[in-house]
Amino acid sequence: MEKNYVNITDDDYKSLDIDPASGAFKRYLKAGLLEMTDEKFVSDIQAFWSKHYNQKVDPVLNIAFMNLTGRKDTRVVPAYLMSSQIIPYFNDKQITVGYKDKNIYDALLKTPRSAETVLKRVRGKYFSSDNHHLSSKEAKQTLLESESDLIIKPSNTNNGIGIAKLVIRSGYLMRGEEAVTLSDLEETYGQNFIVQKAIKQHPLMAAPHPSSVNTLRMVTLRWKQEIIHLLTFARFGANNDVKDNAGGGGVCLGLTEDGKFLDIAMDEHANTYTHHPTTNFCFKDLDSIPNFEEFKQFVIDAHAQILHHDFVSWDIAMDTDGKPVCIEANFAGATWLYQLAAQKPMFGDLTEEILQKVSEENGNQNYVSPKVKLKKQKRQITRYSNKIKELENMLQEAEENAKNLRLQNKRLRRQKKMIKNKYENLLQSKSWRYTSPFRTIVKTVKK
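Structure for Sugar-transfer associated ATP-grasp, as requested:
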């Protein structure tokens, strides 16, 4: 790394187009990934993005990438752009919910190896692995007759949410050290969940943290009538939990294109590790995946069956024979972690042409960050609120005026009636009638 970096203070960040209030900034700062920066590099980042995407960006992820790897790469894609513009360009979000349902994976995805289903619950109804309807009693018996450990998880979530291990012990269904019933599982997992056989994984993937089924997060992209592999990182569980995801305390470790593991892992807070945080396993001791090309072809072939989404993140396990096993497909994710863990920009050498295409298709609309958009919305809400109050005050004033006018109208009507009555009474009075001849003479004289 060149030595022209300078330490900067909080007051300097805004001048570099970095938002010090963002969650990303706070995460990288706390993890020590913003200790050094380079103004020329930031200038290069803005020039690159202005040229290829027609807008400036918050360069905080590029700077974190530089501090982590020692490489200055302008092609690292900000996570907020990935989630708000680029992934929506590649994926049809309206249909994502269908692809997320693991209970229909057997119909959607035909892969040589996938997690073996034991029981499905769909909208409160139970089904066997071959989709035959089961009663609750039959569903319970199906679980108790299993000869292997089981994994239960919601069928319509991703990224390891809600995963738990079930084992059969002395005729009882156990979750951890607790005996559970089918009703307990229904209460926890609701109307939709899936139970699968626990995968027996290869010693290579088990080594850093044997308690969890550790997987490879492999990212593929459909681009110009071709499906390509973008990057891969391994996800190792932690704290003896069955889950492998970073959100459960696990760590992510990148792989090179030829299947070699990197030696620095990262957690969801961007903290880095040379050894596993639970087992102290040294990541440098991990052997390469010898048949990594087979893994890449596996996810490319699987992606060919998904037509509505061009950007897919796959969770792939390695069985005891060293073969890939499909766990699930994901259509979004923490792409900042993808790039830092794999230590490579998301789209690599395709970055320029992809950005140009997405920018053109999106009409070169300047991006407004969620925070700026929120501030704008808050200002609009304040203006509308003030206007509403102003109109309410005007309405109240008008109603008061109307009320006063109604009262005044009543008073005038009463006065009119009273005067009219007096007038009519006067006309009907004896004095008025008796003086009538006199008034007639007076009129005649005046003529």
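The CA atoms of residues 54 and 442 lie 100 Å apart.
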